[in-house]
Amino acid sequence: MDPRYTLVGCSFVIQGVVIGSMFAYGVFLPFLEAEFGWSRALLSSTLSTASLVMGVFAIGGGHLVDRYGPRWVLSVTGVICGLGYVLTGTLSAPWQLFVYFGLMVGIGMSTHDVGTLPVVARIFDKRRGAMTGVVKVGTAVGQIIIPYTATVLIAGLGWRCAAIALGCGGAVLLLLAAQGLNPSRIRRPGGPEHAGAAPRSGYSLRQVLSRRTFWTLCVTQFTFMPALITIPLHLPVHGTDLGMTVTAAAALLSVIGATSVAGRLVIGRIADWLGGRRALSLCLVLLSTSLALVPALTSATALYGFAVLYGFAHGGLFTVISPTVAEYFGMRAHGAIFGAIVFCGTLGAAAGPMAAGWIFDVEGSYALAFWGLAGLSAVAFALIATLPAGESERKIS
Fold first, then answer.
1. Which of 3, 195, 217, 333 is the most buried if burial means most Cβ atoms within 10 Å?
2. Secondary structure of residue 275 in the 3-state scheme
3. Does residue 136 have a pLDDT over 80?
4. Under 8 Å CB-to-CB from 351, ≥6 apart: which residues?
5. 215-253: per-residue pLDDT in tens?
6. In this structure, are residues 321 and 222 in contact, taking their beta carbons and an 8 Å threshold?
7. pTM for the structure as a whole
8. Domain boundaries, the chain
9. Given a cut of 60, is residue 60 above it in pLDDT?
10. Element spanning 300, H or E
11. 28 and 150 in contact (C-beta within 8 Å)?
């Protein structure tokens, strides 16, 4: 078997475990609210903290991966992620939730993209978008399996034991998968064995700091990321507010995960074919449209329909950024540049869930939050329209 595909498979697993575990927090939220009486703003701010920590550590993590390779970086962060979930199962005070989930799980999440996607981009320089899409399908699978698994475990064991079980299982899977990320053993077709990567031509992080394209991508990431983090957290509890059972509401996340598979694969191919700018534009049109409609949806069937449209855009947006960064800036410092853009996104992602929880606590409804997310997504679309044509677009024009 081509060792490049072993690396893809291990990256697939890492993506699924990390993002699936993050999504599963939304399943725990009603049980934490019921046991402790904590507000949704407080509970949501925990995920906001995790998102912010993820972004801060992603910058340094991307640099470490560029310099030392992904295996040991991902091994360490994988164990921290699992341990954070285990400790979450023992919490009794709000500060513990911020430390165990916000800080530790946030650190664990920080390298799942910068430790996998730059490596995949290097070893598949001709099919970056398509293979990035395959890897990111792992997150969709994780979104389907892990929240459902959490629901089953909570029903049988209670939420505390469920969190401990998820943490133990996640740590083992992440540690094992990280051992398969050793690009130095991959021989590129027709060339010598060397780091398994495409030639690292392109810009350094210092050089891109003076380029408008870089900052446009940073601000774009900031404006659409709140929707990608807020909706998975608040949609299940929004469903229960509308009368859905906990299981049926949790299934909304599985629908998002399932339809995002198509988004990841299709958008990845479009990025290779038509360029990252056009692929991003398509995703943002779908995202802003779905978010603008959701406040009017009151039935389970309608919410599942929203989950289909949103899920496609959600999956595509998580796929397209890495190959777009490579298209505009090359591979010289892909991990560091990608990490910086991810950091900007997590600033928005950190604010989104907390703001949505606060709006619900004040208004008793998520309508303003959904409309606000739709507006931010529309701003992101307008920003992408200002970008210059990338390499893929110029080739077909």
1. 217
2. coil
3. yes
4. 48, 226
5. 999 999 999 999 998 888 788 888 888 888 877 887 887
6. no
7. 0.74
8. 3-396
9. yes
10. helix 300-329
11. yes
